[in-house]
Structure formats: C-alpha cells, structure tokens
Design a protein that fits this description.
Number of domains: 2
Keywords: Kinase, Transferase
Number of helices: 10
Enzyme class: transferase
Oligomer: single chain
CATH superfamily of the largest domain: PurM-like C-terminal domain
Organism: Paenibacillus mesotrionivorans
Largest sheet: 7 strands, mixed
Bound molecules: adenosine-5'-diphosphate, thiamine diphosphate, magnesium ion
EC number: 2.7.4.16
Protein name: Thiamine-phosphate kinase
Shape: globular
C-alpha cells in the first residue's frame, strides 16, 4: 500500500530530480524549453522555429511486457521510457519531453515505485528528456506505466516508413535477437531478475539487452542531418514485422539476406545451449529497439563512413527490389543455401495467440 496519498506520491516520485541535460542545444536562449513543468494542470513547452513536434506513446503492462522474474522495477521504468525514445529515434527526431501515466494497485510498495522512477529518470536524463508531467491513479490489480514522449525534427525531414524505393539498401543499426534471448533465459532458468551477479558476461549482456535497451537516437540524427535517410522504423516487434511495415507503407518488396544479418556471439552461444534457432530470434524476437530502414544504394558507403566515424553500428542486411519485381509489397529472405523464399509477416502481435519466438 503506498503509505502516502496521491499528491504525496507524485511529490515523492518526481521531487528533487535533476532533469534533464539537453542533448542538442537550440539557438541562443531556448533553454530547456520547459515554460511550465510539473505542478500545474498541464505543461507549457516552447517550440523552436524550423522544427516540427514528433509525438508517440507506449504502455507497459504486467505479464505482457514484464513479469516479476524478468524485470526489476528500475528496468521497467527504464524500458518504458526507452521504448518511447526509440519511436522518436525511428523518426529521426531529437527527444525533448515526456509525460508519464502510472496506475498503481493499493498494495504496491512505495519503494518499488521509487525504483521504477529511478530507472525512468535514468533513461530520460541519458537522452536529454525533461519529464514535464503525467497522471497517477489507483487500479484494482496490476500496475501499468504509460509514457508519452515528445521530440522535434527539422521541418519536413522526419524519416517515414513510406520512403523506401527500388534500389535502396536496407540497414539495421546493431545485432538483433539479444532481448528475446535474454527474456528466454530469465523465463527458462527461473533466474530472478534481481540476481544476475553470478551470470557469465555474455549472459548478462542478453539480460541487459532485454531490461535496458538503448534507443538509437544518434543513428536517427545522422540519417536526418546528412539528408541520406530514406525510410525508417524501430524494431519493437521483430525485424520481419518491421520490414513488412516498411514494405507495405512504401509499396515495395524488400529482400533480406540471412548471411548479412549481424550475429552477436552472446546470442549464438545461448541459442546453441538452449536449443533455439538464432535466426528465429533475430527475425521474430522483438524488443531490440535498433533501427531498420533504407538509404539509396549509391549512398550506403557514405552512410557507413558517417556511422563508423561516430563509432556506431550500421549493417547492410538487404535491398529493395527493382520496380518490375514489386507487383505486391512484401519481404523475401535469401537463405544461407542461396534459396529465396517469402518471409512470414510474423512478430509480436498483441491480439494473436502464438507469440513464441521459437515456434
Ligand atoms: N489506441 C490508439 N489510438 C490511436 N492511434 C493508435 C492507437 N494505438 C496505436 N496507434 C497508432 O498506430 C500506429 C502503429 O502503432 P504501433 O504498432 O504501436 O507502433 P510502434 O510499434 O512504433 O509503437 C502508430 O501511429 C500509433 O500512434
Ligand atoms: C513476460 C514477457 N513476455 C513476452 C515479452 C515479449 N514482448 C512483449 S511486448 C513485445 C513487443 C513490443 O511491445 P509493444 O507493446 O508491441 O510495443 P510497440 O510495438 O507498440 O512499440 C514483446 C516482444 C516480454 N517482454 N515479457
Ligand atoms: Mg506502440
Ligand atoms: Mg515503432
Ligand atoms: Mg508492437
């Protein structure tokens, strides 16, 4: 039971926080853009001329997005913020502000909520996001946390799902499948999310990928600033699902190549031991919060150099087929043996029965 009332709880969770450090300062005098923050009926935010707002919302629900054995409270808070920042990164936006809606059962400990907020603010501060408000309610059973994030992007420069064209190169900004493997490890081993010290480093990396994903804001900004990004999506439901969204929004056919997918040694090691198919985890696992998208084929080397210069990952994983091969939008996979087959439109889907990555 929270031992303070609603208003006490809000003060407890948000008071005394140092937040945020801006990532990219605007023109002289824009400050952090918060004219009115927490404490009034709504926040008042300054807009910058030459920019458009980018707004997104994602929710986390017990047993769907986390279980006590898979996530600490700190991790739940961190990931709730990170999944939203990832959607801003997918648009090529600069994250700026967030509001947080929390519904808490009466028997939930205040200390757990404080840990959740520690994680939430840790992620917000890391990406320069000011938490400017929210809402707090009681609820009959399981806690939910919902974040609405606001970013900004130079006018008409947002990276859309619909911008892929024939001849484009398809990229991902890092290895995939680690989060799904981390989830499998936590569920299968019955390993408590609170007791990881004994795990080998590679296993800890899988668990960290699941609990503390790192949204790829800098990657999105490189693609906007250079003007070389053509289309983009973030990988929340799995690469196959996100590639399908790009293909359908753009009206094109994407061909991914198995041998080009970046494979992390922690993933292949765990998959081997646990009897899982690493390709299934990479394509259908989800919650990677890496970016996938396209650039013009002739720009791929230049983009690679820009990413290399920043020490960021950029992996070519396929291309968009020529117009004459694109009657119906879709995604193909060229397998290791050279065969090419349609890739199932499968991934995490809230209202479908079978969600297992290794099905
Ligand atoms: N309840 C809702 N009301 C209005 N729009 C929604 C709702 N749920 C999702 N959307 C919109 O549908 C689109 C797809 O949502 P989603 O698949 O959750 O995207 P993502 O995977 O990037 O989070 C987004 O534009 C999102 O804003
Ligand atoms: C206990 C547990 N079971 C399964 C999963 C896997 N999982 C839950 S939601 C999800 C997809 C991403 O969440 P969603 O709400 O669809 O985010 P969005 O696509 O809107 O960003 C995945 C892979 C998990 N994280 N925890
Ligand atoms: Mg969503
Ligand atoms: Mg998204
Ligand atoms: Mg989803």
């Amino acid at each position: 039971m929270p031992r303070v009332d609603e208003f006490g709880l809000i003060r407890l969770l948000t008071g005394g926080r140092s937040n945020p450090a801006r990532v990219e300062q605007g023109p002289a005098g824009t400050g952090d853009g918060v004219a009115v923050g927490i404490g009034d009926d709504a926040a008042v935010l300054d807009g910058r001329s030459g920019f458009q707002w980018v707004v997104t919302c994602d929710t986390m629900v017990r047993d769907i997005h986390f279980k006590p054995e898979t996530m600490t409270y700190e991790a739940i808070g961190y990931k709730a913020m990170a999944s939203n920042i990832s959607d801003l990164a997918a648009m090529g936006a600069i994250p700026r502000f967030a509001v947080v809606a929390l519904s808490v059962p009466a028997d939930m400990e205040t200390e757990a909520l404080r840990e959740l907020y520690d994680g939430l603010y840790a992620c917000a501060n890391r990406y320069g996001v000011a938490v400017v408000g929210g809402d707090t309610t009681s609820c009959p059973r399981d806690m939910t946390v919902s974040v609405t994030a606001i970013g900004e992007v130079e006018t008409d420069r947002a990276l859309l799902r619909s911008g892929a064209r024939p001849g484009d190169t398809v990229f991902v900004t890092g290895p995939l499948g680690l989060s799904a493997a981390g989830l499998h490890l936590l569920l299968a081993a019955g390993r408590s999310a609170y007791d990881l010290a004994g795990l080998p480093e590679e296993r800890q990396r899988l668990v960290r990928a699941h609990q503390f994903p790192q949204p790829q804001v800098e990657a999105g900004r490189i693609l906007v600033r250079s003007g070389l990004g053509r289309s983009q999506n973030d990988v929340s439901d799995g690469l196959a699902s996100e590639a399908w969204e790009l293909a359908e929004a753009s009206g094109c056919v994407i061909r991914l190549e198995e041998t080009l997918l970046p494979v992390d040694s922690a993933l292949s090691g765990y998959a081997r031991e646990a009897g899982l198919n690493p390709l299934e985890l990479m394509l259908y696992g989800g919650e990677d919060y890496r970016l996938t998208g396209t650039v013009r084929g002739e720009d791929a080397a230049a983009v690679q150099a820009l990413f290399d210069a920043e020490g960021l990952e950029f992996h070519v994983v396929g291309h968009v087929l020529a117009d004459e091969d694109s009657a119906t939008p879709g995604v193909l996979l060229k397998r290791r043996d050279g065969s090419i087959s349609p890739l199932q439109k499968r991934g995490y889907n809230h209202f479908k029965e079978d969600q297992s990555a290794d099905a």
